[in-house]
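re: ur question from yesterday

yeah so i grabbed the chain u mentioned. its 435 aa long if i counted rite. heres the sequnce exactly as i have it in my notes:
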Amino acid sequence: MANRRTKSIPWFIIAMVFAFLGMSTIQIHWLRSSVRMKQQLFDDNVAHALSEVGDFLTQPSAAALQAQLEAVNSDPGIPSIGTALSGAERTMLQRMDAFMVDSLIQEALHEHGIAAVPVIGVFDRFGQPVRLEEADEEHRAALTEEGYCVVAEPLRLCVHFPSLDRYLLHNLLGQFALTGVMLAIIAAGLFSAVITANRNKRIDRIRRDLMNNLTHELKTPISTIGLAAEALNDPDMRRSEETLKHYVGLIREENKRLGVLVENVLQASLADSGSMRLFMQPLNAHDVIKEVVKNLAIQTVKRGGKVELNLTASSPVIEADRIHLTNVVYNLMDNALKYASENPLLEISSRNTPNGVEFRFKDNGIGIPKEHLGKVFDRLYRVPTGNVHDVKGFGLGLSYVRTVVVRHHGSIHVESEPGKGSTFVIELPKTQPER
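ran it thru and got these structure tokens back, copy pasting raw so excuse formatting
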């Protein structure tokens, strides 16, 4: 089941990627369509507004004639820009001035929902400006080529919006923000899915390795105990005190091995669940280390190993939990013995630091590649060695060690090179803060 799920993960990721690209394409197409629709709506509204202004200027009425007469009486000279105006052109220009065409256009635009500020110009039949502010001269070409125009016979009235793009984008800001949020959510979901898929793949691999190792570790002592029990019950076996002692000792050792296995799993479970309870008391750390070295002496000699103590800390008393601190030393020593190629050599040293005591566990083992140094303390993580059955374990020991050290408000790190052994460095404070 785990293998089938692991193999389906890449297809799931590919589907998520295509979904993200599809949604992005749809959102971008929707935005472009919105911009085009907004532009078309703007064009239609400007055209309608100018058409209304043009009709108003060209339709004869008593009010228009009165306003034009007042304009003529007040300002009989109409300025022009490099061109001679005909009578009809002069009349229309007077009418535009009479009705204050700038205000008239802005009012018409406002009624059609347009708040953009326009540049306004009036041009004769030859395309020459007859009414254009000096400050708007730079927009002259844009007025005739890109502007919105309406004919007010015999003149042509044109408007241009220099900041049209900014105006349209400002109106679409909410849609752009919504699209950005949606794409960000989709991207976050895709990223989370990829991370989760990789994590599940790694957990599946670790679970398989754990089950393989756990099965092997359980089968070995159980088989040994079963064979020893059968041998003791065999009536044909020559019963001697030495033989009896051998098999009883074998059963005792394998039973102890099973107990250590269960204890390791239990410790890891307590550490992972946060249920670990610490009973702090003043301890001589050197005595704890020497006790563990003594208890592992037989195992060390059996492996042809040696432990050198260089405990130079002048003040080794710290506040700690005896049982868990003992387990930390045991796990580090057991690792040093297991991962040594031959003739294990472990040097344990100590020294005082400004904050407490530092302990160094240096071995001559196979070492740890640089890319795995940051992961050795992860729960269930084991450094790949080609054959997972070369050295038995569950990836629980170092995770438990780190948890105990952190719960003691200490720190731990490892220094290692492949083929040159490893050094685990632990620093523990002399006293624990009030909890």
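noticed a couple things. The first helix runs from residue 2 to 58. also The CA atoms of residues 185 and 191 lie 10 Å apart.
anyway ttyl
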